[in-house]
């Protein structure tokens, strides 16, 4: 078997594979198959990951009866479960008191494609709210969702829209009809 600079083709191939595999992930990056939890957090490699910068308010439980087994959960968890197929790439931003990790997570992210930010995906659909310290993009997406009346901004049962929190007046109970 011919040798190239003292390396056999098999060891050269193994070395190349290890170099390419190491180049695919950055230090501190969490990559793996994700299982969506009922609170819209992700379980990746045994770690509970919460999407950084958002709050997914509890909405009523909806059921997807067209799949087996039937899954009943919050709208945010069902939307995430629909979106999360394959591997998820997360960049941790901090750790919570309960040991869970806050992270910015992407689906379909590769070296050539930035992928889709899962938190932004939920905010665009009105299924999550941007926290005060969230990136500007999240707040802009939340305003668009609110103006379009989607998600929690459009559901009367679990709405947190302007009729419940009028601008400049603080909280007040929703008037009975």
Topology diagram in text:
Layout: H1 9-24, E1 30-36, E2 42-44, E3 47-51, E4 54-55, E5 61-64, E6 71-74, H2 75-83, E7 87-95, E8 101-107, E9 116-117, H3 118-124, E10 129-130, H4 136-148
Parallel strand pairs: 3-8
Antiparallel strand pairs: 1-2, 1-7, 2-3, 4-10, 5-6, 7-8, 8-9
Helix pairs in contact: 3-4
Briefly characterize the structure.
By secondary structure, this protein is α+β, with helices and mostly antiparallel strands.
What do you see in this structure?
The protein is an alpha+beta fold and 177 residues long. It has one domain: OB fold (Dihydrolipoamide Acetyltransferase, E2P) (Beta Barrel). Helices cover 25% and strands 25% of the residues. The chain contains 4 helices and 10 strands; from the N terminus they run H-E-E-E-E-E-E-H-E-E-E-H-E-H. The strands form 3 sheets. Strands 1-2-3-8-7 form a 5-stranded mixed β-barrel. A two-stranded antiparallel ribbon has the order 4-10. Strand 7 (87-95) and strand 8 form a beta hairpin. Helix 3 packs parallel to helix 4. It is globular. The N and C termini lie far apart (86 Å). Residues 12-25 and 157-177 have low confidence and may be disordered.
């Amino acid at each position: 078997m011919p040798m190239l600079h003292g390396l056999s083709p098999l060891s050269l191939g193994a070395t190349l594979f290890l170099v390419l595999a190491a180049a695919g992930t950055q230090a501190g990056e969490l990559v793996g198959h994700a299982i969506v939890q009922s609170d819209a957090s992700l379980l990746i490699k045994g770690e509970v990951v919460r999407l950084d910068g958002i709050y997914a308010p509890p909405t009523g439980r909806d059921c997807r009866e067209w799949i087996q087994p039937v899954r009943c959960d919050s709208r945010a968890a069902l939307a995430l479960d629909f979106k999360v197929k394959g591997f998820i790439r997360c960049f941790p931003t901090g750790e919570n008191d309960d040991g869970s990790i806050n992270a910015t997570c992407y689906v379909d992210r590769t070296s050539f494609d930035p992928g889709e930010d899962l938190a932004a995906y939920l905010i665009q659909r009105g299924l999550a709210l941007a926290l005060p310290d969230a990136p500007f993009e999240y707040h802009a997406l939340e305003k668009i969702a609110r103006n379009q009346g989607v998600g929690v901004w459009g559901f009367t049962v679990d709405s947190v829209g302007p009729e419940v929190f009028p601008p400049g007046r603080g909280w007040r109970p929703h008037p009975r009809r």
